[in-house]
Specification:
612 residues, globular
């Protein structure tokens, strides 16, 4: 049994001590005000927030999932994260981050007041957003909880630890036990330091992960050069036909079972559904989680856009160097990997931790483990901060104690943080695996969110009642529809839940009068969305003759199209580098250079344009 070397353990301990110090150092600043705790005083530079956001997305559960996808589907795995959808960062970069930041709100629920006012419909909308945000945050926390537990289980064998645990833990709950231990540790710095503590801990974590990714990528690159790679036909290309037609039966038969379980066989239908869902989710704007909180923490609208764009630039190449490196090592040395979980079943989600254990040298192993544990803590801390923001800002301060002192706010932040952690641990105990939680979040829960959140940006007549009933119908159907169709992939249930949500939105909208005209005019004047806002625009022109509407729809959609191509190139290039595909590298680099030139001219150079 290969156990951690003393040097590796010391590196991990040094990292843990560092983030404890960060939490303690930034504690006083975080306690100065609500904005200091939840948004870092809106004074953190965009590039640090971008690194922090990228760090939060470099999560351990997601990395486990992506390494498994790369191992099974090869270069084609570049498309599957569109389930999330990963390209929502491009929509944010181009225009939605600007729109959101112009609201000057603290949370997504507080934003509701800027769009729908403060009457009955707006109050209902406010409540439903808080409910959705908390469900989403708890889902993400449970997702990270399972991934971390599976990861730690490989490096700290249960047969060693069980001798020191005064109670019995069944094999299937071993990952959950480890998840609880590290979750308790992560609570410390995220509760003490607030947003500033989270950002600085994230920057350190991303630096660690960058070093580790470069080394793992190099090891994978060397292994590919020294061995013959045995993969199915089509594994090395991003293109696909009507069906996936990837046959592992003569190489690693267990992989065919994984493809069947994933439900990706009819890949063209799967891809079209991903694009359909992905575009709608992206148009709806960010879900009320840590991503939205980072946007609201920027100094101004232009920096919000820069921050969202910077995420893809720093995250994709570094993350996929590591993912492709591990996939290469796992493919070449598959026979050395022990992929049996505690229950004795083959589990391909163990590829990442077992590959780390088998191939990473002493010293770097400690650094990599510290980075991946930090990745969990980053995602956890950002999500916990978002949940606290909704509970404290949108429930406690709004309905319970509007005049709360800083000390009362500080205490409530601590209390709500602890409650959220306990509930997420309980939910995590019922989660089967990383993929099951991920599928539920991205395919089912997002279906309840999309309809109402698209209409809120682009249709003036949409009101608080419409938002509430659209979200409520979506959330209820998200709980019922998967139970009615238990064997259907969550992605294919998305349109059903979306239609139910849209019906609720339309019926709810026309069940009540339009939002107060002054609220709509203020929102339209400050945020400047495009879409169907003509009646409000005409009224503003009557008051302000030189008022101009936002006519950037065509330019924004062009930039989104170019940005998605650039982001995909940033994903594929590291894959081609590791697997030594010279011609595709040059083609992809050429495409990327053209895209960057276009984005510089039509996006970056226009960020400081003012709408009079």
């Amino acid at each position: 049994m290969k156990l951690l070397h003393t040097a590796d353990i010391l590196i991990i301990v040094m990292y843990l001590l560092t983030i404890v110090v960060i939490g303690l150092v930034l504690r006083k600043k975080a306690q100065q005000s609500k904005d200091d705790y939840l948004l870092g005083g809106k004074a953190i530079p965009w590039y640090l927030l971008g690194l922090s956001n990228a760090s939060g997305m470099f999560d351990i559960s997601g990395t486990i999932w992506l390494v498994t996808l790369m191992f099974v589907y090869g270069i084609k795995s570049a498309w599957i994260p569109w389930l999330w959808p990963v390209f929502n960062q491009i929509f944010l970069m181009v225009y939605l981050s600007k729109w959101l930041r112009r609201s000057n709100a603290t949370t997504g629920a507080e934003w509701i007041g800027t769009r729908f006012g403060f009457k009955k419909g707006a109050k209902l909308s406010h409540i439903i957003v808080v409910v959705f945000a908390l469900i989403m945050c708890l889902g993400y926390l449970a997702y990270g909880f399972i991934g971390l537990g599976k990861f730690i289980e490989i490096f700290i064998p249960w047969e060693v630890v069980s001798n020191y645990v005064p109670f019995y833990v069944t094999p299937e709950f071993v990952p959950h036990f480890y998840g609880i231990i590290f979750t308790c540790f992560a609570v410390f710095y995220s509760l003490l330091g607030g947003m500033s503590g989270i950002v600085w801990a994230d920057v350190i974590q991303f630096a660690i992960m960058t070093v580790a990714a470069l080394v793992i990528g190099f090891l994978g690159f060397q292994a590919v050069g020294a061995h013959v790679l045995n993969v199915p036909e089509g594994w090395m290309t991003p293109t696909f036909g009507w069906e996936l037609n990837m046959d592992w039966s003569t190489i690693i038969p267990e992989v065919n079972k994984k493809i069947q379980e994933d439900g990706f066989g009819l890949f063209t239908i799967f891809f079209m559904m991903m694009v359909f869902k992905g575009v709608l989710v992206s148009l709806a704007g960010p879900a009320p989680t840590y991503d939205m909180q980072k946007i609201l923490s920027t100094k101004d609208a232009a920096e919000a856009s820069k921050m969202s764009g910077f995420v893809s630039v720093v995250l994709m190449p570094i993350r996929y160097l590591m993912i492709a490196g591990f996939a290469a090592l796992a493919l070449i040395y598959y026979e050395k990997l022990d992929l049996l979980n505690s229950a004795g079943d083959v589990d391909l989600e163990l590829i990442l931790p077992t590959a780390i254990k088998e191939f990473v040298p002493v010293g770097l192993l400690g650094l990599l483990l510290a980075g991946l544990i930090a990745a969990f803590m980053s995602t956890f801390a950002g999500t916990l901060n978002a949940a606290q923001a909704y509970l404290v800002n949108d429930i406690y301060l709004k309905y319970k104690n509007p005049q709360a002192s800083n000390i009362q706010i500080k205490n409530m932040n601590y209390i709500t943080g602890i409650v959220v952690v306990i509930v997420s641990i309980v939910l995590g105990l019922f989660a089967k695996d990383v993929n099951s939680v991920l599928q539920w979040i991205v395919s089912v829960l997002y279906g309840s969110y999309v309809g109402a959140n698209i209409l809120k940006w682009y249709w003036w007549r949409f009101n608080g009642e419409g938002f509430f009933w659209g979200m409520a119908a979506g959330l209820i159907s998200a709980g019922i529809v998967p139970e009615l169709f238990p064997n259907v992939l969550g992605l294919y249930l998305f349109p059903v839940i979306l239609v139910i949500s849209l019906i609720g939105s339309i019926v709810g909208t026309y069940s009540a009068p339009p939002t107060n005209e002054e609220i709509l005019k203020d929102f339209y004047k400050n945020v400047r969305p495009w879409g169907y806002w003509k009646p409000i625009h005409d009224k503003l022109v009557a008051e302000i003759p030189n008022f101009k509407k936002n006519s950037d729809f065509n330019r924004d959609m062009f930039n989104v199209f170019v940005g998605i191509i650039a982001q995909t190139a940033l994903v594929i290039i590291p894959m081609y580098v590791i697997f030594r595909q010279t011609t595709p590298i040059y083609i992809s680099l050429g495409v990327l250079v053209v895209c960057l030139f276009l984005l510089k001219k039509f996006w970056w150079n226009t960020l400081d344009e003012k709408l009079d």
